[in-house]
Description:
The complex is a heterodimer.
Chain A: E1 6-14, H1 21-29, E2 36-37, E3 50-51, H2 73-89, E4 101-106, H3 112-120, H4 133-137, H5 141-150, E5 156-159, H6 165-178, E6 184-191, H7 196-204, E7 234-242, H8 243-248, E8 255-264, H9 277-290, E9 299-301, H10 310-322, E10 330-332, H11 335-338, H12 345-359, E11 361-362, E12 387-388, E13 393-400, E14 404-412
Parallel strand pairs in A: 4-5, 4-6, 9-10, 9-13
Antiparallel strand pairs in A: 1-7, 1-8, 2-3, 6-7, 8-14, 11-12, 13-14
Chain B: H1 3-16, H2 37-51, H3 57-60, H4 66-76
Amino acid sequence: MELKRVVITGLGTVNPLGNSIEEYWEGLKNGVSGAARITRMNIELHKTQFGCEVKNFDPTLYVEKKEVRKHDPFTLYAFAAAQQAIDDSGLDLDAIDKDRAGVIWGAGVGGLQTFYEEVKAYDLSRPKFNPFFIPKMIANIAGGLVSIRFGFRGPNFTTVSACASASHAMIEAFNYIRMGKANLFITGGSEAAINEAGLCGFNSMRAISTRNDDPATASRPFDKDRDGFVMGEGSGALIFEEYEHAIARGAKIYAEVVGGGMSADAYHMTAPDPDGKGASLVMKWALEDAGLKPEDIDYINVHGTSTPLGDIAEPKAIIKVFGDHAYKLSISSTKSMTGHLLGAAGAIEGIASILALRDGIIPPTINHFTDDPEIDNNLDFTFNVAKKRDINYAISNTFGFGGHNATVVFKKY
Amino acid sequence: MSDIASKVKAIIVDKLGVDESEVTNEASFTNDLGADSLDTVELIMEFEKEFDLAIPDDQAEKIGTVGEAIAHIEANIKK
């Protein structure tokens, strides 16, 4: 079977750096931190009192006012990104074959805020739950509702692999199109876990930074004094489209998707394999899938969450896969700016990789102060300042709790 | 308007996002006020909470209009 080519023809996002692709990319290029003290809830007694919140988000731009309360924030973020991506793509929704247009969406948790609020409100003397509890909370609802909005009747499901969710979604969308099973997808992911349950839950795992006196520098991947990730939230949507379909309608093409890899650490519930075995395997599979050699890759948007263990394992895996070429790669963790969007991370980091290819600009890893002797600092982490570099191939790594790894390969168009 | 009627109407305005003027006694939740099956269940639950009532499913199914809701609550509210 001859595989079809897949291109990206539309982008959308709501994230801690901005509520549009333009704002997001400006923030990334300029090394802006999206972190600040959390304002939406009483945070006084919390161990971690900051995060990378979405700011000034107006859901009524995307949903009728009376519908807003029926949706968890992770769905509202999905609506926003998907609508932006569809608008950006220039697709004529009346002209396309909607039986061959699908939605494959990623969510690590789903409606955590809805779950928390409804369970908290449960009253044993009146044992009933709100009828919207289940449909608002389930992780697949965002993808389902996006398909309803646009009338897309093609393949539709949600990938749940913690922080690798959106990357798994993109690889699935890529595979369905290249096998000829669909013409286009809205893919990506969304997450909204900055709430009491999300923050305290990750706090108890000692996974998130507690640098309350200086939130803006808390996400410092590969720095010696990193102390955990910073919670982010938001969404990223990408239109993946079969190449001939895009050409036939004269679509604007951002970049091409050329491969995807998946693996598991098979090691521990939350800790990464210290030698990066799963992480090196996923990059190896991704290159093989794309038919590329390690030397072809120019840029890696790394998982790099700013956790003590993860940031040691990933560079080891890169050196294992790329050998001497590892030192010629540009590497950056945009989580230093956006925080960690969990199930949506792969979506906004895929978008960052695509824009890096388009514009020849490598976004930086901000907040680097002190080298960590346990990390090979001969690697080029693009510390603190963005760099101009024309690149042809970029890969985006995402690794999730549970040991799920997914890597997507993008090519300049 | 009775106290009960005004509270019922306020709940409907809040939950269904409709204009107060649309919430007449004759208005049907599903046909006139745009409610779906989940909205209707939620409304009944809100009435139960507000008026400290238990409305069994077989009776809830008979409440289709604003007026029927007010009548049911007025007849069953704990005095």
